[in-house]
């Protein structure tokens, strides 16, 4: 890279150049809380789980909080959950998940119920540009099965234009993994190319991190310099036909009929993300145990789940800026 390009990159990306002989502790530029896949409609203690997250983020004075989807359906009976969410004193942001529209609800109804901004949008905090994508659009080819997990042409055009419009470093949020070819965004490679093209045009690592939920797992992928980090569910791993054998009260099962298909986590999982002036980032997660049954007891094999089934959001250290 030429010296002029290097200096431009250094001024626009979170890279701190130390010209002295003494070590200067990097400054924390931004701190935010992130959670995913609460599934209020499926979990008996979901409100309590969310309350623990909100209280912790208030105590840690994060700049904002964001949930990555599969939060709750827009039913009036779910209003109490929003009261818990709104206990957070700062900014709050939402990502739409595939289960949030179950029961015939539309994206617009979900947005209105949550008082969210839009189905996809961007915002800025502390000289960082954040992008929220909606991965729940229908593939016009009609070839896909199951829940929609597609980002259409209009949203792709908006994404490219939004990236071009900012000179700030960028972090992206999407419900489904853009790096996951199993059950993630269809044509995820096309979305990744939009990120990579933006980085190439900028001449530095402009799009730095992409956070997702949906998969109820814990992993990290580095693709062409961009960190893709999966945030585990706050509540459980879906075991499906590998049903756990826990005996539940019949009255509880009448209200929460899917419990026998879940491997619940004893404690709620989430993460706090900190980004520093030297171009580093720290993801501080949480560890729990399985409440009812372990993956081994449910005979879950890694060949089926691809990534390990674990009750943790891992601590991670990332180097974001490069030249």
UniProtKB/TrEMBL annotation:
It comes from the Bacteria. Residues 30-217 form the Calcineurin-like phosphoesterase domain. It holds the Pfam family Metallophos. InterPro entries: Calcineurin-like_PHP (IPR004843), Metallo-depent_PP-like (IPR029052), STPP_CPPED1 (IPR051918). GO terms for molecular function: hydrolase activity. This is Alkaline phosphatase. The lineage of its organism: Bacteria, Pseudomonadati, Bacteroidota, Cytophagia, Cytophagales.
């Amino acid at each position: 890279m030429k010296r002029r390009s290097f200096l431009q990159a250094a001024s626009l990306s979170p890279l701190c150049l130390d010209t002295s002989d003494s070590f200067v502790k990097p400054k924390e530029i931004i701190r935010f809380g992130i959670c995913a896949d609460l599934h209020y409609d499926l979990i008996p203690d979901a409100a309590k789980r969310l309350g623990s997250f909100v209280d912790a983020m208030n105590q840690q004075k994060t700049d904002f909080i964001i949930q990555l989807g599969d939060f709750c359906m827009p039913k009036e009976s779910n209003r109490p959950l929003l009261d818990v969410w709104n206990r957070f004193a700062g900014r709050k942001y939402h990502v739409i998940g595939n289960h949030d529209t179950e029961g015939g609800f539309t994206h617009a109804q979900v947005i209105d119920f949550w008082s969210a901004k839009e189905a996809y949008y961007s915002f800025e905090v502390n000289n960082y540009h954040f992008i929220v994508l909606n991965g729940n659009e229908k593939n016009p080819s009609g070839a896909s099965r199951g829940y929609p997990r597609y980002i259409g042409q209009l949203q792709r055009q908006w994404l490219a234009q939004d990236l071009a419009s900012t000179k700030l470093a960028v972090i992206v949020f999407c419900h489904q993994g853009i790096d996951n070819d199993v059950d993630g965004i269809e044509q995820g490679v096309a979305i990744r190319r939009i990120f990579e093209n933006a980085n190439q045009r900028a001449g530095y690592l402009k799009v730095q991190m992409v956070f997702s939920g949906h998969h109820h797992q814990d992993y990290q992928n580095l693709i062409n310099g961009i960190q893709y980090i999966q945030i585990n569910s706050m509540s459980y791993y879906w075991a499906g036909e590998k049903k756990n054998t826990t005996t539940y009260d019949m009255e509880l099962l009448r209200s929460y009929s899917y419990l026998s298909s879940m491997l619940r986590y004893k404690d709620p999982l989430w993460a706090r993300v900190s980004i520093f002036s030297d171009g580093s980032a720290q993801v501080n997660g949480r560890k729990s145990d399985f409440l009812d049954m372990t993956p081994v007891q449910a005979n879950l094999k890694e060949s089926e789940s691809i990534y390990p089934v674990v009750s943790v959001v891992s601590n991670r250290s990332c180097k974001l800026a490069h030249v």
